[in-house]
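Quick start: load a record and inspect it. Here is CAAX amino terminal protease:
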Amino acid sequence: MSPDRNSPVEAVEEWRVATLSLILLAVMFTVLIGSHIVANSLLSVPWLLPEAEGALIGIPVALAVYLFVPRLVGIPRKSVFITVPSRSILRWAGVAVVLVGVVTVGSVAGLSGTLEIHASDGRFLSRVLLSAVLLGLLAAITEELVFRGYLLSFVGHNWGWPAAIVLTSILFGLLHNSKVAGTGASELYVLVATSAGLLYALVTYYTESVWNAIVLHAVWNTVFHTQVISIEPAETQSERAIVSYEYAEASFLFGGNWAAATVSPFVLLALVAASAAVLLAYRSNSTKK
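Running the structure step on this input writes:
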């Protein structure tokens, strides 16, 4: 894959690119935080968990804003990897399911614990699943359109694609540090988020579509970040998990006593391996051509 090196993005002055990048990041945080604040004041949806109501506002706002920006600055959407979604998103949804499965099965196999499935209450099940999907989509759409849509393109067209992939992934990881500040797992979480960002960036670059990365990100967040599947010690186990795996002790590979199994060195290795697989697969295809 070789994105257009004479893209209209290159014609935009660097100061405009820098300014627009900062504005897009500010809008991202505003949408992610503001949508929940507004929803808490205005909405009460019985078929959703309270924390998911903001997604009903945030998702359409994010799509409207980020899909309008190319027209505002005079660049084609495909220059920032925003193309018409194709059937390839189904393939990447499958890849995401496999990756989630590897992490789940690997963690359960490496930890001694108790598995429980909470699916007897249909109303609870549908409420949690729908809320998880909406929350997963909100974060994925908002973050991917900014990081792998605009920032990846801006840096790539001006500084080169290897630098763009690495730098945007590091920034993505650093901005996730506050999620676990003070827990003793901050540095590891940054590394895990950075490796996830690397995977999303490679997928976006090689497939020329940010929507494939959005699907990967959304499936991951839906399952793990909203704890549809919760692999945690007893003291931090989610009461809303549909599938819970409770363990007492974990080795360093699975987070020890300082990080959850889903934010552990094992997950870091799985994400790095997935990134390497994408890189090798697409480079091999390009060599054959």
